[in-house]
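Writing this down once: the sequence line spells out the residues, with the fold written below as integer tokens. This is how one looks:
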Amino acid sequence: MTISSEAVGDGPAVLLVHAGVADARMWARLVEELKDDHRVITVDLRGYGETPLEPGAQYSDAGDVLEVLDAVGASAVTAVGASYGGYVVQQIASREPERFARLVLLCAPTDNVEPDGDLRALWSEENELLEAGDVDGATDLAVRRWIGPEADDDARELLRTMQRRAYDVQLAAGDVDNEEWPVEPEKISAPVRLITGAHDFRFFSDCADYLADRLPNAERIELPWAGHLPTLERPADALDLIREEED
């Protein structure tokens, strides 16, 4: 299996791992800004964007991303993970902490934190729509609930396109086995910036608080304007958060 990935620019390595409702296209505006002075690495996880998902596949998203880093020879990496992508980053950094110079986790889940009622209700509604074959309805639901009030129409349409692509590929594949590596915050030695949005589900703030209490070197930021996808909602502000303290 070849994971769709791209490495552009020259300079310190920055890895961008997309959210579970998106794909690498969510980073397009940030890549254009960062590539002038960074080597920017993006991936499409299996079942997203340009990376297929085979029926019955057995794999690990964390292992796939690690193979991409190995293939491009990236070390001292600044890893930026949005939502599920942030969870994948935590898995890799727990296993190979020496590879990373810095982490930025945007509205990321983690182990050992229970989802709140509103998030469980969303998952239930999504499952009902998909089981009924209403993929358009599930896509509309995702756009309504996963992006904050600051997002413009282009951002919402991009999210719609990415989420619909993910549904189409993943539903066709059926059941797969994605091995998740354990997250061990105490082993993550790099500085970690934990960012959440005031308009997001409480679960993601709870996860950031949990990590902040256990990571050796953590900074906690709550964005009053943000929902779940701040890099799509205010790309310029999100870029400042990623760039800050790199130099």
The beta strands are 5-8, 13-17, 39-43, 58-59, 77-82, 100-106, 177-178, 192-197, 218-223. The chain has nine helices and nine strands. The longest strand covers residues 100-106.
